[in-house]
């Protein structure tokens, strides 16, 4: 095996940045109207494809919608996307979601995710921290047998419920572990 040199590391990082930028997820797009339009479309798709998500949404105190997350990796990997936090259906803040990782990986994918904050405490913790990172305390809604998404009937007891959906690309799986959310001004 060859040692990882600075040149290889730099080339890998540049390739990852190129792949991420090439996927067109709105990086560099500072238009709040476009983000809001994508958020509306994403929620419409979620509610149409997974009708039980409406019940979770009705019980939630706020919703963070990330319409397009682009994830790419070639040795070094990363992801990025932009979205909006809505309370009572009204956008109150805009956020970016980013992550980075190192490991044996190659490929790219895009996906959407929606975080439903089920308690005021979870929402306040999220809004209070600059650079909140997803981790424990999130209950995931996973697709089973095609289009069915199952959420535990006790979803109201989890502080945050996450839907990860609309995956497309040449990477397998998507997780929110280690994704860092940062408030932005579009």
Automatic annotation (TrEMBL):
This protein's UniProt keywords: Signal
PROSITE patterns (UniProt xref): PROKAR_LIPOPROTEIN
Coiled-coil regions listed in the entry: none
Domain Ysc84 actin-binding, first and last residues per copy: 99-181
Top-rank taxon: Bacteria
Signal peptide boundaries: 1-21
Name of this protein: Twin-arginine translocation pathway signal sequence domain-containing protein
Organism from which the protein derives: Primorskyibacter flagellatus
